[in-house]
Amino acid sequence: MNAIHVTEIDNPKRNYPIAVLIASAVTVCIFVFGTLGIAFVIPQKDINLVQSLLITFYKMFQWAGIPWAAPIIAIALALGVLAGIVTWVSGPSAGMLAVGRAGYLPRWWQYSNKHGVATHLLLIQAFIVTFLSIIFVVLPSVQAAYQILSQLTVILYLIMYLLMFAAAIYLRYSQPNRPRPYKIPGGNAGMWVVGGVGFLGSALAFCFSFIPPSQIPVGSPYTYVLILLVLTTIFCIIPFVIYARRKSIWVDPNSTFAPFTWQIEKVHNGIINPSTKETNELVEAHFQNKANASSSQSQADDTAKA
Questions:
Q1: Domain ranges of the chain
Q2: Where does the chain cross the membrane (predicted)?
Q3: Cβ atoms 265, 282 nearer than 8 A
Q4: pLDDT digit string (tens) for 206-230?
């Protein structure tokens, strides 16, 4: 997700890889040392995916003589989870609203209230969540239902990562001359190494996501895997159905969603595009032409009325 901020960095060819390496090292340290902390405090046979973190805090605070701090940490964790939920609820609806106004979602889905909130999209999200809540009845425990919904989220995300890594390799060949804020060094070989490792890692994690956890009773493993397969298939098919049935009237004239470079340059996306123009330059020219056309149309309408 941090790749969208590349254009805001000074000298991205140098500073962006450094930032990624530092962030990766910090992330690894946080997770490794946090996991080791739990392993040092709780015996291996007592470690579980649900309660180990809170139990670790409680035992460490008890050892330090401040057991009263454990409930404070629990409340802080709950608030953090709540903040994450709010972000996950509002974030996708804002993104889908921008995409929808570009003509990829029906007009009813594009409605927003006076505060700019995509209320109809939020209603659709609420309906989907309500439908998925049936899993809490099918599976033997709340933990199992939560686990399968979490895995479904991971699987859908990994599908997008697979597409992004594959697209990065493809774009290196289909738009080889396109200037970019940051370009992976090593030419096509470097892109194959970085993109290939990312693709294989995502594919491996995708396959492992279907394995039922051993620490949470999920009932029949076949039912667990079947539910994941069915839900993944449904959520992957829905975008293709909507895209196949899209109509020109879905496009909002005031949409600020930038089209693809091959759409602006009117070059088929299945052939090599030798263009050397920067993406930002193309987008700015596109919206400028759009504004000029709108102004000309308004003047023509005024002339016709006169």
A1: 9-41, 50-138, 140-250
A2: 18-42, 72-100, 121-142, 148-171, 192-211, 223-244
A3: yes
A4: 999 998 887 777 778 888 889 899 9
